[in-house]
Specification:
The structure is a homodimer. Chain A has five helices and eight strands; from the N terminus they run H-H-H-E-E-E-E-E-H-E-E-H-E. With about 160 residues, chain A is an alpha+beta fold. The longest helix of chain A has 14 residues. At the A-B interface, strand 1, strand 4 and strand 5 of A face strand 1, strand 6 and strand 7 of B. Chain A binds a DNA duplex (30 and 30 nucleotides) through helix 3.
Amino acid sequence: MKEGRQRAILRILGRNKVRNQEELLEYLRNEGIVATQATVSRDLAQMNIVKLRDENSGSSFFSVPSNFLHVIPDANKSVSGIVSVEISGQICVIKTSPGYANMVGAVIDSKCSGHSMGTIAGDDTLLVMLRQNIVLEDFINNLEQTIPGISSKYI
Amino acid sequence: MKEGRQRAILRILGRNKVRNQEELLEYLRNEGIVATQATVSRDLAQMNIVKLRDENSGSSFFSVPSNFLHVIPDANKSVSGIVSVEISGQICVIKTSPGYANMVGAVIDSKCSGHSMGTIAGDDTLLVMLRQNIVLEDFINNLEQTIPGISSKYI
DNA sequence: TATATGCTTTTATATTTATGCATTATATGC
DNA sequence: GCATATAATGCATAAATATAAAAGCATATA
């Protein structure tokens, strides 16, 4: 019960700007999950979710801390030299085995140009600068298809 | 009036974990600044200050966004090769003496991994990519302890 | 001087979020 | 299965935050 609801909350907050807990309840109801405000209040506290402010509108909305959104390399089929993938704001950082960052960067430059403004590679760290209005999930899907051996999941 | 109060708020929030607006009003009163809850509510909105959750206690407290914070090298005791530190959004740029950026990057990789997703170094410029939803004050404290010779100040 | 204009602030109140307590569900040991 | 412990939930309400409306105050303007 709780676990499924919290997973749903992550999904919902990842896709929508939710401005208060009543609104979140509605989204949940649309998925067939019924709960009360008190319950989601506790969920949010437990998940460390916070309310941030929209720079422009000034209105506030819930935000999932990054440690709940991980893109992890799939150990079974990892042939790409990728160690980890992490996203924060418009920045995606990909850690690779030593010497691999440039190669991965080249791949992303050619295959993810719709999502990426560009990349800069060190030796084992690749910086991908994401475009402003992309849908993060699309980029992740793109990554998954482009670079065999990584998969994303929530939590 | 307003400007001085907001400056005080930055100072107070940088040094203390303030848990609600009434508490903030008390801190202000201790500095001889009298205002009402409604006023600081607007101040916080205007300054984009948000409430985060303490990882351990679960209780929440106000946090100042990056564009109000500056970290500067302390000229008196600067022995680390660091020239300047500046933060914008999720990006921290550290300028160093020529050739030092890599070294500083390695230090940060090992000592600040909780706050940093990764670093990329040029010759005299180091880019530190910060995780989402970190408490910036914590990162800066960490930096100060990790790299002797820098100190931070508010605005 | 009187009037208008654009903030800032307060007061009063609405909205939003958190929480104590009782209840129900779920797990654990016998 | 039954008893008991533990956790999850809802209800009612308290606490915290935001906001509408009015008042204050400085500056500009006729």
